[in-house]
Every structure is written in C-alpha cells, then in structure tokens.
Amino acid sequence: MNMNGRNADAGRIHEIAMRGHGARLISRRSFLVGSAAGLGAFGLAGCATPDGLSVAEAQKLYGPVPEEKFPIPAVDVSKVDRKYYRRTVRYETEEAPGTIIVDPANYYVYRIEEDGLATRYGANVGRDGFRWSGDAYIGRKGEWATWTPPKEMIQRQPEAAKYARGMPGGLDNPLGARTLYLYQNGAYTLYTIYATSDPESIGTGVTSGCVGLLSQDMIDLYDRTPVKTKVVVLPA
Asked: Residue 148 and residue 229: Cα distance in Å, rounded?
C-alpha cells in the first residue's frame, strides 16, 4: 500500500486543531482541518434526473434522525453541492458487491451493488500531504465511539490534555455517530471512514487522511458494511 505523506508521527493522522466553534472547545470543523488548522440508498427511480436529487428530496433524505442515542439534526443541504447527494449510479468494476471504493480525487465513496451499480456518497478527504491509496479492510466498527487524542497532539496543543483518557461519544465528538476503522494485515492503519455534521466539508480535502460522510450517509453505509469488508482507496 502506498501511504503518501504518512510519517512516523502517527498522531497527526487524527490531530484536531483546537479552534472553538461557538461555545465548543473542540468543533467538528476543527477535526476536519487537523493540525494545519437509517435511511436506505435511493434506487435509480429516485435519482432519475441527470442532476440527481432535488433539494426537496435531499431535505427528506438528510432530515433529522431523532431516534439516535444523540439525536442528529437535519443537514442544511443548501451547503452541499447537489452532485454530492447520495444516489445510485452505474459503476463498472471487478470488485465484489459490498466492496467500498474511495475516490478522493472526486470526493466520492462508493458501495458496490449488484448489476454494475453502486451507491455513491459525497465525502471529504485528506488534504495535501495526508492522502494515501491502496487496499484495506474494515477491522472494526464503532457507534458513537470514544475519541482519544494522541500524545503527540497533546504535546503540541496542551488544551487537548483534558481528553487524554478519551472524549465520550456525542455530537461534538470528532468521530461522530459511526466509525469504520481501516486495517491491513491485522493492524489498524490509523485511518477511518467517519460521520461528519459539517456539510461544508463535503467535496473538500481538509482532513488528516480520514474520509468523512454526512452522518445520515454514514449510518446508511455503516449498517450495510460488515467487519472484513474490503476497502479500495484510489490514488488522488
């Protein structure tokens, strides 16, 4: 696997810039910037127009999820380019159904379906210097997972020390509602596919190598992705 830009400082992979968001000490946006800073997929019938979903349809798809442990608010879909709304598309590949393909160059994540189709989700991806490519697999999964800042980050940003024993799951937690952890050869790669509540991050390269989907999309993908699922990350 080619880990472009990965170095010995493993803490940088999940480093969070401590730039408050309103009254929050650690914001979702700051997680995306890093140290430099469920509903099922729609079928073709629901995405028949060339531009994909309408705004009204997207508002339904990305509406609130009140039944969650921490109720998830609706997405402000006006802040997301319509091309990144979830939809079913034709996608020719030799990978088996269920495989996840990350296309960082175009800010998409695909879940391969039957008959040459795929569910496509808009994503945020790693910024320059943190992108990587290759094959991995889902080694474990987490719902409202605890986030623990690495010691390297705490050394650079002492205000993160309060979470040295872990930041409990919740709406402010950088990992969000669901997390898929990428592994190779039995070892955690330090990369994840996670849930973001920052719609403006979709279609941008702002993370420290991880891949974020809107919470509603991430719940959809998570529910249909068992442990050991293959993940292919394409070159950017």
From this structure: 25
Instruction: Confirm if 113 and 213 have CB atoms less than 8 A apart.
Output: no
**Is 60 exceeded by the pLDDT of residue 26?**
no
DSSP-derived pairing of the beta strands 108-112 and 100-103:
antiparallel
Q: Which domain holds residue 188?
A: 10-233
In-domain check, residue 140: yes
Q: How far apart are CA 19 and CA 29, in angstroms?
A: 8
pTM here?
A: 0.78
Q: What is the pLDDT of residue 129?
A: 66
4 assigned to some structural domain = no
Number of domains forming the structure of the chain: 1
Residue 189 belongs to a domain: yes
Alpha-helical (H) ranges within 148-202 are: 151-156
In a domain, 3, yes or no: no
The pair phi, psi for residue 146, each rounded to 5°, is -75, 135
Label residue 25 exposed, middle or buried (CB < 10 Å: 0-12, 13-18, 19+).
Answer: middle
- What CATH number did the domain enclosing 219 receive? 2.40.440.10
Residues 6+ apart with CB under 8 A from 56: none
Give the whole-angstrom CA distance, residue 19 versus residue 2: 31
Q: Decide: residue 176, CB within 10 A, 0-12 exposed, 13-18 middle, 19+ buried.
A: buried
What DSSP element (H or E) covers 32? helix 28-33
Please say whether the beta carbons of 194 and 212 come within 8 A: yes
Token pair for residue 220? 């959809």
- 196 forms beta bridges with 214
pLDDT category of residue 40 using cuts at 50, 70 and 90: very low
